[in-house]
Amino acid sequence: MPANSGSFSIMLLVPDASYMGNVLDFSLEVTNNGISIGNFILSYEHACSYDPNEKSASPVGYTDQHYIENTDEIVYTIHFQNTGTATATDVIIRDIIDENLDISTLQFAASSHSAMQSLHPVTRELIFYFNNIYLPDSSYDEMGSQGFVSYRIMPATGLQQGMQISNTASIYFDNNDPVMTNTMVHSIFDCAAYTSHISSNIDGMCADPMIHANADVSWSEQYTWTWNDLMIGNEPITSFNATEENWLKLEISNPLCGARIDSIWISLPELVELNITQSGNNLFTNIIDGSAYQWYLDGSIIEGSVSSSIEIQTSGNYAVDMMTSDGCIITTEMDAIYTSMEEAEVKAVVIFPNPAFDQLSMLIPTDYVNGMMTIHTIEGRLLSTRKLFQSKTQIDISKLSQGTYFITVWTEGFEALHVPFLKK
To answer: Which class is domain 17-188?
Structure first.
């Protein structure tokens, strides 16, 4: 007949204690005249405790946090057994419904014996009464001494990520003290907010820098990092060398929420370009604040040549290594021609060594002889002024503090040339 309902019980012999902790899955199909009218799935963690009075739940939930979604219905089953020495006339089960469960959705599911139930709307206490059950003791009838009752209920609406639902029942056999079941705990996992939150940092400013990326994920069972469509890692943290800018992609997944893909654009630092220029018999690098320098002539180290400039004594192929503050080594080279001082014509202001500790040598074009020289701080504060009587001048900078300064030379017609230097 339409709208008819009924219930039935199935007694199953479950595995012994060697299967403790395994999740057992059961499926049930209901048919009417060969036509399927419903499918049901039940899973529970086989506790097989030595105390036969226990509570189980379906779904069990994922991981040791027993994650479920806020939309997952929970079926609680309370198992009881008379392990005393005489028949139990009545069995009463008391269950306080957790505040994070919606009692308006509570529905009776099934029971092994006829039972009455009541639910107090304020105290949230659910009571099952098995009156006149006459449950034999286990020593007399092992299978007959057992019973169960189950109900289904939904989590309350609006539960946030990580909120917990816990449930424990008390079983009363006649007038004896209650037997407490185990506590079933579930944690809410918000699949709508399931994302990876990728963060990254770059190790050094060298060519092909090392990229370190981290995925801040509350729970994922699979990680797949890809760079240029190649898989580069399967852990929450990955590191790799990047030769170009691109998207770093991460796919995460867990059995509750499925897969999610997130990505982050990796921008590479602008690499430092090192160059050498020649002025007269002096070679200068365009970067004067490197951590360390080493000059070479035709592939051999020039001992003691460890500043950003060098005065050459012969023609040849000159190269310099510069270490940056990140520890990167940058190398450049050029073919330089030595010219005697008599043949040389200085075209610009040349200072060396640069950086310098105590003394600077300065070469100026002949047009600037009899002109003036000033030293300013990087902020423009004037520190000293002097007259220039020859094209090569020694400058004492021993009393200056460490930092960057500017030298300006002036012709008698007030034409100016500027050059910076670094005091160490």
So the answer is: mainly beta
- Structurally, what CATH architecture does the domain formed by 272-344 represent? Sandwich (2.60)
For residue 353, say if its preceding peptide bond is cis, omega within 30 degrees of 0. yes
**Terminus-to-terminus CA distance in the chain, angstroms?**
99
- Residue corresponding to tokens 């469509």: 229
DSSP string spanning 215-257? E--SS-SEEEEEETTEEEESSSEEEEE-SS-EEEEEEEEETTT
Q: How far apart are CA 257 and CA 195, in angstroms?
A: 10
**113 contacts: CB under 8 Å, gap ≥ 6:** 130, 133, 135, 147
Local structure of residue 184 (DSSP, 8 states): E
- What gap in Å lies between CA 236 and CA 252, rounded to an integer? 9
Separation CA 214–CA 216 (nearest Å): 6
Within a 10 A sphere around the Cβ of 183, how many other Cβ atoms? 10
291 CB-near residues (< 8 Å, 6+ apart):
323, 324, 325, 327
How many angstroms separate the CA atoms of 320 and 276, rounded?
Answer: 8
CATH H-level superfamily of 345-424: Macroglobulin (MG2) domain (2.60.40.1930)
Cβ atoms < 10 Å from Cβ of 353: 23
Other beta carbons less than 10 A from residue 415's beta carbon: 12
Place of tokens 């691109």: 246
Cα dist. 233→222, 238, 240 in Å?
11, 6, 9
Q: What is the pLDDT of residue 8?
A: 60
Q: What is the residue extent of each domain of the chain?
A: 17-188, 194-266, 272-344, 345-424
Q: Which residues of the chain have pLDDT under 50?
A: 1, 17-18, 47-50, 342-344
Q: Which fold has domain 194-266?
A: Immunoglobulin-like (2.60.40)
pLDDT of residue 21: 56
What is the pLDDT, as a whole number, of residue 262? Answer: 93
| 3-state SS, residue 294 | strand
The CA distance from 14 to 34, in Å, is 29
pLDDT tens digits for range 2-49: 556 665 656 666 665 445 556 677 777 777 777 777 666 666 555 443
342-350 — which CB contacts under 8 Å span 24+ positions?
Answer: 344/280, 344/281, 345/280, 346/279, 346/280, 346/391, 347/279, 348/279, 348/417, 348/419, 349/407, 349/409, 349/417, 349/418, 349/419, 350/279, 350/280, 350/282, 350/284, 350/419
Q: What letter represents residue 368's amino acid?
A: Y
Q: Is the CB of residue 339 less than 8 Å from the CB of residue 281?
A: yes
